[in-house]
C-alpha cells in the first residue's frame, strides 16, 4: 500500500511546520512542494530530505484554473506511481482553502491506485488572522466561507457571527490571476449579497497576514459601501473580515438565560 502525506507548511515560514511534519518529510521517498517556496523550506528540505521538487511553477497565471489543476494532478500521479511514500507540502493548512488537497483523494480513487492519503496540519491563515484580530472565534461565534459559494447559493448570513470570507480575489472568475486579482475579481456580486444582510455603513476589513518573516500585517478598513474600492487592494492571499453585530433582544432565550444566572 502506497502512502501519500499532505503536509501543512505553515504561512509565514517553514519554521511553522510541526515536528511531526518534519519527521514525516524526513522519512519520505520523495517530496513535492506546491504553493510556492515557503520561506526557509529550501534549507530545511536540503537538510532533511534532498529528494524534492517544487511543482508550483505549473500553476500558471492567467490560465484556466481547471487546466492548472489538471496539470498539477498529472504531476502528482506520476510521483505516486514512482514512489511508495510521497509527501506533498502545501501552503498553510492542507484542509483550509487548499483545493489541491481536497482533490488528491478523489484523484487517487479515480486512478485506481491503492494508497493511504493522510493529512498533517500546519498553521493556517485562519490561525494567523485570529492573532491579528486578537479574536477568540468561540466568544461571538465565527463563520468561514468561500465568497463564490456564499454568492452562488445565496447562503443565509447570521450577522451576530463574525465572518471570514475567503477567496475574495477571485469572485466570479474562472481564470487564475495571482498577479493583479483586483482587475478581475467581480466585487459587485459580493457587495449586492452583503447588502441583503447588513447596512451600507457596517464596517469590514480586508486582511493580509504576514506571509514571510519580513512582511507586515496589512489591514484595509472600510464599510460595505466601500467594498469595490477596498478590493482594489486585494491580493491572492487576502481575506475579508466582517465583524459581528449584537443580536436583537428578542432573540434572547429568556428561560435559558435565567438558568444561567441562577
TrEMBL record:
In this protein, which residues make up the domain named Tetrapyrrole methylase? 3-129
Q: Gene3D superfamilies from the xrefs?
A: Cobalt-precorrin-4 Transmethylase, Domain 1 (3.40.1010.10)
InterPro entries to which the protein is assigned, alphabetical? 4pyrrol_Mease (IPR000878), 4pyrrol_Methylase_sf (IPR035996), 4pyrrole_Mease_sub1 (IPR014777)
Q: Name one GO molecular function term.
A: methyltransferase activity
Give the SUPFAM superfamilies listed for this entry: Tetrapyrrole methylase
Q: What is this protein called?
A: Tetrapyrrole methylase domain-containing protein
According to its UniProt entry, this protein's organism is Acinetobacter seifertii
What is the phylogenetic placement of the source species in the record?
A: Bacteria, Pseudomonadati, Pseudomonadota, Gammaproteobacteria, Moraxellales
Amino acid at each position: 500500500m502506497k502512502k501519500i502525506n499532505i503536509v501543512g507548511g505553515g504561512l509565514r515560514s517553514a519554521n511553522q511546520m510541526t515536528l511531526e511534519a518534519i519527521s514525516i518529510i524526513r522519512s519520505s521517498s520523495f517530496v513535492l512542494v506546491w504553493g510556492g517556496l515557503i520561506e526557509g523550506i529550501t534549507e530545511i528540505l536540503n537538510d532533511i530530505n534532498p529528494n524534492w521538487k517544487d511543482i508550483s511553477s505549473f500553476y500558471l497565471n492567467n490560465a484556466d484554473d481547471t487546466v492548472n489543476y489538471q496539470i498539477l494532478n498529472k504531476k502528482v500521479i506520476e510521483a505516486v506511481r514512482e514512489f511508495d511514500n510521497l509527501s506533498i507540502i502545501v501552503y498553510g493548512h492542507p484542509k483550509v482553502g487548499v483545493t489541491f488537497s481536497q482533490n488528491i483523494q478523489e484523484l487517487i480513487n479515480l486512478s485506481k491506485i491503492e494508497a493511504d492519503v493522510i493529512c498533517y496540519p500546519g498553521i493556517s491563515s485562519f490561525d494567523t488572522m485570529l492573532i491579528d484580530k486578537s479574536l477568540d472565534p468561540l466568544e461571538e461565534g465565527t463563520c468561514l466561507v468561500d465568497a463564490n459559494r456564499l454568492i452562488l447559493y445565496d447562503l443565509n448570513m447570521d450577522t451576530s457571527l463574525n465572518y471570514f470570507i475567503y477567496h475574495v480575489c477571485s469572485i466570479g472568475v474562472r481564470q487564475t490571476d495571482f498577479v493583479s486579482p483586483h482587475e478581475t475579481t467581480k466585487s459587485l456580486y459580493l457587495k449586492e449579497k452583503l447588502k441583503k444582510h447588513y447596512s451600507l455603513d457596517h464596517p469590514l476589513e480586508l486582511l493580509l497576514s504576514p506571509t514571510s518573516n519580513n512582511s507586515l500585517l496589512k489591514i484595509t478598513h472600510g464599510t460595505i459601501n466601500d467594498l469595490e474600492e477596498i478590493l482594489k487592494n486585494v491580493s491572492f492571499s487576502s481575506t475579508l473580515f466582517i465583524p459581528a453585530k449584537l443580536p436583537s433582544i428578542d432573540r434572547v432565550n429568556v428561560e435559558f438565560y435565567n438558568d444561567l444566572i441562577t
